[in-house]
User: Fold this.
Amino acid sequence: MRILIADDDPQILRALRITLGARGYEIITAHDGVSALAAVVEYHPDLVMLDLGMPNLDGLTVIDSLRAWNSVPILVVSGRSGASDKVEALDRGADDYVTKPFSIDELLARIRALTRRLSGPGDEPVITFGDLTVDLPAKTVVRAGPAGPQPVRLTPTEWQILELLLRSRESW
Assistant:
């Protein structure tokens, strides 16, 4: 599973990269809001862990931007402990909120809870139709051709539409 950690504190990034990496998670890091959005587009993470107080774009703006085109689970990990900060982040589209400092066991439990919802019973991870193969968990599309399989590049919006259509195909 791929997790994007967006935080401007290099010590937090390093500690989480080591701790979560040792537990088998693939970790991508971003040091500000702009690079966090770019990393979501480039790496298609399964979960975004996001600090609210980042430079360039703050965490709330990142949440707003992500929710405009992506449904990736967002776990806010922030030093802001006020109820109004938590409510605002959750109302804007965050899925959960953990206050720093946090217990690693609690963080891992929240990651497991959020990612349990990624694929439910009956979800088909790989769907093939015609010469196209769509791997939903990997977020890839491959076209079979005479020269071998060729990846199909999709914009985030195109991917979101394709995924929505494929996941709702039982109602066709």
The radius of gyration is 17 Å. Strands lie at 2-6, 26-30, 47-50, 74-78, 96-99, 126-129, 132-135, 140-143, 150-151. DSSP finds six helices and nine strands in the chain.
